[in-house]
Design goal:
With 195 residues, the chain is an alpha/beta fold. The chain has a single domain, classed as Glutaredoxin. 35% of the residues lie in helices and 17% in strands.
């Protein structure tokens, strides 16, 4: 049974890796710490356009994932817990679904996983902006000023993920009160899509 699961996971991963892409300039390669996170505009599960810049002043855990990705399924409950634990401190988890499937299937999966954070529909363009994401899961930890403070590819330990979240939360933006952790209107509406 385990062998069958491993073979299916490899086939699904291969499908993702070999799908045709429109190649453009790859923005993030190598050590990306201190680099400004590229802005994007992606569609949420409820059809709204969400920009990374909507969350300026927040710490962001930006996670590229897919419904067929076994390690993604392991970390998603951790992200749910981290959103609960640090959301009041200004953390926003954003999931970017890189599936080649219908939106309703992604929404159903996110609901079954208890996702309490916005899920956005990924594109090849955003993948390229973030270094041509080839392996899932891949996460970027972005501080309140929009700078990347960490990156993780593959399944990391929960403690390492939380440490990166704390680094992202540690930054302060001039003119933004740390106690003001309200969520922008566009982000609040995307949360309801997966609840």
């Amino acid at each position: 049974m385990a062998l069958l699961v491993a073979i299916l996971a490899m086939l699904a991963t291969g499908k993702y890796l070999v799908r045709p892409r429109q190649h453009g300039a790859v923005t993030l390669v190598g050590d990306v710490r201190g680099v400004s996170a590229p802005d994007f505009a992606l569609t949420s599960l409820d059809g709204r356009i969400v920009k990374l810049s909507d969350y300026r002043g927040k710490a962001i855990l930006l996670n590229f994932w897919a419904t067929w990705c076994s390690p993604c399924k392991v970390e998603m409950p951790w992200f749910v817990d981290l959103q609960k634990k640090y959301g009041g401190d200004g953390l926003v988890v954003l999931g970017i679904a890189m599936d080649d499937t219908e939106t309703d299937k992604i929404a159903k999966f996110a609901s079954e996983m208890g996702v309490n954070y916005p899920v956005l529909l990924g594109t090849d363009k955003v993948s390229e902006q973030y270094g041509n994401v080839e392996y899932l899961p891949t996460s970027f930890y972005i501080d309140r000023e929009g700078k990347i403070v960490g990156k993780g590819t593959g399944l990391l330990g929960r403690a390492e993920i939380e440490e990166n979240v704390q680094k992202a939360l540690a930054s302060h933006v001039v003119g933004i009160n740390k106690a003001d952790t309200s969520t922008p209107a566009s982000a609040e509406t995307t949360k309801t899509a997966v609840q």
